[in-house]
Structure formats: C-alpha cells, structure tokens
Design a protein that fits this description.
It contains 15 helices and 17 strands. It is an alpha/beta fold. It has 2 domains: 168 residues, Rossmann fold, CATH 3.40.50; 207 residues, Phosphoglycerate kinase, N-terminal domain (Rossmann fold), CATH 3.40.50.1260. It has a 6-stranded parallel beta sheet. Strands 10-8-7-15-16-17 form a 6-stranded parallel beta sheet, with helices on both faces. Strands 12-11-14 form a 3-stranded antiparallel beta sheet. 51% of the residues are buried. It catalyses: (2R)-3-phosphoglycerate + ATP = (2R)-3-phospho-glyceroyl phosphate + ADP.
Length: 401
Amino acid sequence: MATKKSVGSLKEADLKGKRVFVRVDLNVPLDDNFNITDDTRIRAAVPTIKYLIGHGAKVILSSHLGRPKGVTPKYSLKPLVGRLSELLGVEVKMADDCIGEQVEKLVATLPEGGVLLLENVRFYKEEEKNDPEFAKKLASLADLYVNDAFGTAHRAHASTEGVAKYLKPAVAGFLMQKELDYLVGAVANPKKPFAAIVGGSKVSTKIGVIESLLAKVDILLLGGGMIFTFYKAQGHSVGSSLVEEDKLDLALSLIEKAKAKGVSLLLPTDVVAADKFAADANSKVVPASGIPDGWMGLDIGPVSIKSFSEALDTTKTIIWNGPMGVFEFDKFAAGTDTIAKKLAELSGNGVTTIIGGGDSVAAVEKAGLADKMSHISTGGGASLELLEGKSLPGVLALDNA
C-alpha cells in the first residue's frame, strides 16, 4: 500500500477554523451500568484529536459502538463523553444523532478547538451499506477528513470509506499511521531474522496469515488449538483435542511449503493435556506425538516453551498473533505468559516486537506487559487482513503522501 498522507502533514494554516470529520474507533466495552471497563481505544484516539484542537480545528468525532440494529439506546455513545472530555481537557459536546438539522446547528456553533461527538453512526443501516447519500450527509458537516479508526479500516462503510470521496484532503490519523508503519512496514521490510508466532484455536481462521508470512519469515512458531490439526495430519494421536478434520491436507501442505521456502517451522514437542475443558481440570505434560485418549491439549509444554524462547533469541523482528493455549485458565496460561515475558525482554534488547491484534493483545495486557512491546495493534480483523497482505478499503480511500 502506498504511503498515505498523515494528519501530521497538516499545519495551522490547513486546520485553523476548519471543520474536520474524524472517524475514530471508540468501540469500548461497557458494563451493565454503562461504565467503561477498558478505555484503551479512547486513549488511542487522543493524540490525533489533541493535534487538531491544538491547531484551531473544529473537531467532529464519529464512531460506532457494538452492532446495533437501528437506534438502540444501550449502544449510545453518551457514556463516553465524560472520559473523553477528561482525557482531552476540553468539554466535549454530544449530538443526539449523526446527521440532520440538530447536528448541523451544533456544528455551526462549534468554536475553534471545540469537539462534538456524533451519536453512534451504526444506528443507520446505511453506514454498513456504505450508502453514498448517507456518506454525503456525513461529509456535508465538514471541510476535511481524518480516519484514525484502524479497527474498522477493513470495512468499506460510509464513515470509513464513503466520506473520503467528498472531503479533501482525506488523511490518516496518528494511530492509523502507526499501525500501517508497523504492520505493513515490518512485513514489507523487516530487520532479519524475522519470526512470526501464530496461535489461536483454529487453522482455518489463520490460513491466510500463515501463507502470507511463510513468504516473508525465517522462523514460524505455531501454538494454540490449531497445532492438533498438524499433529493428526502427521499421524500422531491427539486424544480429544480440537481438530479440524477437513484441514489435514492443508496442514501437510503448509509444512511442505515451509520446507520448500527454507522457513524453520516449529511445532511444540510437548503439550499440557487436561482431562476436561475447565479451569480445574486434572493436567499432565505429555509428548505432542501421543496425547492419551480422553485427554485434550490446552497449552504448549515446558520443553516447547524453552525451544521457542531459544529460537526467538536469534531474531530481530517478531510478530505475534494468537495465544499458545487457553490462557483464560491460569493452569493453561504458562505458554502464553512465558512468550509474552520473552517478547518484553527482547524488546528491551532492541528487537522489534509487534502484537498483531486479537487475543494476543488481551494476553499481553493480562500479563501487564503491554507498554514493553514495540507496537500493540488495536485492530482485530484489520490487523489480520493486513498481515494476510490484503488492502484495507479505509486506507485505500485516503490521499497518497
């Protein structure tokens, strides 16, 4: 993907008094009392908004929350206003809608450096349909466009792609920029040796990532539930572990592909097996080649943790996507936790460590190591699609640098 124009290239003359439509990703988890339980995404949006208000722009924020079907009060963005105001140091105004007369009036009264939060853009089905008339209505509120919502950049929606047709310049926010620099940059031009750690429960959801990374990495480490499909394909007994029977041939072909490309593909040699899928299951370490009947593998074993760590010691760039085991249960979290600690240690030694979205982000945060990594991706699906080498519509719509 070509390098995109960034909000940082816009100066006071471009921004002062201008109305800027900013698509942010404020899709944060709320509890039953509408309290924010994790404000990571709000904090991630702050640098771009602060830059704009600091240069005298009138900022109009647009986001979705959840997957509402029509206007659904529990998906209102109202509970976010307090925290957003606090983080920005300005009083954020809130609109009851995202288009229409009331919104236009509020925009008209916005002072320079003022911030208006529009109501959930997904209250309109036209948003996800990328309806041009709806996009035009959103665009009519502003003079230029900033997309900082990396988490929805893989969706061609009205607020992520449609409005860019009507507002110029259309530029990337700082968060979007950082995501692209790390995820596209690392994969396109990594410091070698380059390793990828891919985990998660199913091979099927990671095929694209594995195939794309096989063309680029020197070392590929596999963990999580997906490894049992590889074991079974190689004729090992997997007990009652998770297996995708229809992916056995694919697993073998990926092993062959790695060999042909000279990629060192490491599968765990031992696993922690459990007699049931539960936090209090009985567990024992068994060789990967012989999981007993009635037992299921729920984590990588101590020998594998050691050999994975030694392999990672040789690297300069690491991308991690997907946990090594069922880290939600403490008994089966050792593989994931140890890999997280290893990456944190290597970051300190100058290795570029990229946590590529999804559950690995949760695992790194649970281990309290998020601030130690070079980059933590905020997008789940968007990160995956970028790592698969796909182009993201929300990025393609922006102006080239």
